[in-house]
Amino acid sequence: MVFEYILRQNGIDPAKDLEINQNIDFGSTAAAFSEDDSDFTVEFEPHATSLETGGKGHVVASLGTDSGYVPYTAFCAKQSYLKKNPETIQKFTNALQKGMNFVRAHSPKEIAEVIAPQFKETDLDTITAIVTRYYDQDTWKNNLVFEEESFELLQDILEDSGELKTRVPYKDLVTTTFAEKAKNF
């Protein structure tokens, strides 16, 4: 959806101007790209870097850079849980902010070394290349506040793709109270 949104924002109609094959298993798109006559593929890491290091492709653009801050990861809780457990939610949010602070304060190599145990199937050089790419693209925000602008962008993308029929007011769905408090953690 993000890819098609970016195309439309740049005057390209995905339905008329090109052919997008969406029937390939998500985990198999890089291999399929390597084996067929496709011109482009949309890849998450580590597949994008693997295509480059294997000499089978080149990263030519970043959907994250071209789209703006799309909130790919958000944490949801019921209002009843928020009311009953504000301390737990705040501690969780503070821990996430601590991770964001670590990313801002360390080099891509240092970050890669710390996260490497979570990616046993990927070597440290590849992890470092991925983190460096994200670092250079300013992928990570300074804080966890889910801004209204990003919320509206997400709804624009969903609406543009035909997946969202009715927009939801930001104030009805998003609370930034815990993230605002965590910013100074």
Question: How would you portray this structure in words?
Answer:
This protein has 185 residues and is mainly alpha-helical. It has two domains: 1-67, no CATH class; 71-185, no CATH class. Helices cover 52% and strands 0% of the residues. It is built from eleven helices and no strands. It has helices at residues 2-9, 29-35, 47-53, 63-67, 79-84, 86-105, 108-115, 124-136, 148-160, 170-173, 177-182. Helix 7 (108-115) packs across helix 8 (124-136). The protein starts with a helix and ends with a helix. Keywords: Signal. Belongs to the bacterial solute-binding protein SsuA/TauA family. This is NMT1/THI5 like protein. One of its GO terms (cellular component) is periplasmic space. It comes from Faecalimonas umbilicata.
Give a quick rundown of the structure.
With 185 residues, the protein is an all-alpha fold. It is built from eleven helices and no strands.
Radius of gyration: 19 Å
Query: How many domains, as an integer?
Result: 2
Number of strands: 0
Distance between the termini: 34 Å
Percent in strands:
under 5%
Relative helix content = 40-55%
Low-confidence stretches: none
User: Count of helical segments?
Assistant: 11
Which descriptor suits the 3D outline?
Answer: globular
User: Largest sheet, described in full?
Assistant: none
Overall structural class, as computed from helix and strand content, comes to mainly alpha
Order of helices and strands: HHHHHHHHHHH
